[in-house]
Amino acid sequence: MKAETRRGPADLAEVGRFVDLEIAPRANTFEREEWIPREVLSRVADLGLWAPFLPPEFDGEAMDMVTVGRVHEEIGRGCSGLRSLLTVHSMVSASVHRWGEPAQQEQWLRALARGEKLGAFCLTEPDHSGSDSTAEGTTAVRDQDGWILNGRKKWITGGQVADVFMVFATTGAGTSTFLVESDRPGVRVTPLPHVMGTTASMLAEIEFTDVRLEPTALLGPQGWAAGTVMTNALDLGRYSVACGSVGIIRAAIEACAAYTSVRSAGGVLLRDLPHVRQMMSGMVTARDAARLLCEKAGALKDAGDPATIMATWVAKYHASTSAVRIAGDAVQIHGANGFSPDYPVGRLYRDSKVTEVIEGSTQVQELTIAAEAYREVAQ
Amino acid sequence: MSNDACTQIRTFITTKFPDVTFSDEEDIFALGFVNSLFAMELVMFIEKAFGTRIPNEELHLGNFRSVSLMADLVARQTSAAVG
User: Fold this and answer.
1) Is 90 exceeded by the pLDDT of residue B2?
2) pLDDT of A235-269, one tens digit each?
3) Shortest CA gap B4–chain A (Å)
4) List of E strands, chain A
5) In what residue span(s) does the Carrier domain sit (chain B) (predicted)?
């Protein structure tokens, strides 16, 4: 994708207007067509939102992570499919910045920051869940010219449009990470249509058949430390999903406030019914709590504090589970209209469920967060 | 090896895993409590506490097996930064 003009990054108010005018009104269409048009992706580039956390030397803006989170929240308020693209693109961009050799950074980072190249994160496989990331069927074998990559990845967000894949593969030293251009011979991209939620995230299955890679395709350390590459990227993805979940909650509140202000039952506006007020109060409280948790996680990232990892788990757990509950309440408030494509809440409900599955399922999060509780008590 | 670095690293680990006992020379990976999440936390802790960025070539298991090996890594990185 080529951005003709670029400035930025936009301030949050401008991002909000972009969402209000250009994203939210079209999100149901994006969902139905399972596609986000290129011109929308170019607008994201124009606003400087693809990887604004990168430093200026790589055409980023050194945006702090708290603000990055607010950007992902705003985009998530409009369309979780688009936010999902931002999530995986951020994971790839941050990984190349953190782990890439200078030549790799020169090759990729400016194009990623400008949105001229889009990145996708390839971990999950058809036969191995993302939660079981040590069991990988994709292999990279070293030869005298570089690497030969074989295997399949599934549920790859943005896979239909990405220019570069960040691929985890088993090597002799354990797991390693590779940057693979989508137009390499031997790479086959198959769209995955008709999924339940975030249908506009352009999911794909990616098959690698004897894909030849130069030695410079290897990203970061191999073996044990490659797990650190994966964990670092997933932590950022988790943060983005948490912030996007706050956006879903905000969208549900906006939809319900508008709907209940004009819809009556028994001669009474829905907004004046106590049980509606109760649900709206829960939505507002959950939104504010989720955002505070996200801001805490983001501030710890900005400080380079390892406590950000657990803080991000907690933020994502609260934000995603709240988003599912609140989107469900939003459908309930809308009654039969909640199931209609004429309203956004059905989409919000479908999209919210995805946030409980990706970048650490709710159940995996419970294992991790509960373990922290026992550690705290043992001290 | 810096005693101060050893102390800080040990404190970080025992704060996270108060039930585990180990010497500064002991292989903490052999004790089974280090998962990928904690490995990431260890890397972030060392980088933040000692103001260094661990290069890819130093990110291997051999440098993280024990408190003393991590302290040696810190000493190398901080002296390289000064030098």
Assistant:
1) no
2) 999 999 999 999 999 999 999 999 999 999 999 99
3) 19
4) 119-122, 139-143, 146-156, 164-171, 174-181, 187-191, 204-213, 218-219, 264-265, 268-269
5) 1-78
Do A208 and A265 lie in one domain? The reply is: no
Whether A223 and B45 lie within 8 Å, measured CB to CB: no
First to last CA, chain A: 52
Chain-chain contact of B44 with A306 (C-beta, under 8 angstroms) = yes
For testing the chain B interface, which of A98, A218, A231 should be mutated: the one with the most B CBs within 10 Å?
A231
A2 within domain boundaries: no
Question: At B32, which CATH number?
Answer: 1.10.1200.10
In Å, how far is A96's CA from the nearest CA of chain B? 12
Lowest pLDDT segment from A69-78, A155-164, A171-180, A255-264: A171-180
Which residues of chain A neighbour B59 with C-beta distances below 8 Å? 220-221, 225, 228
Cβ-based neighbours of A215, under 8 Å, separated by 6 or more: A146, A147
pLDDT in tens, A261-289: 999 999 999 999 999 999 999 999 999 99
Say what the ipTM of the complex is.
Answer: 0.90
Host domain of residue B51: 3-10+22-82
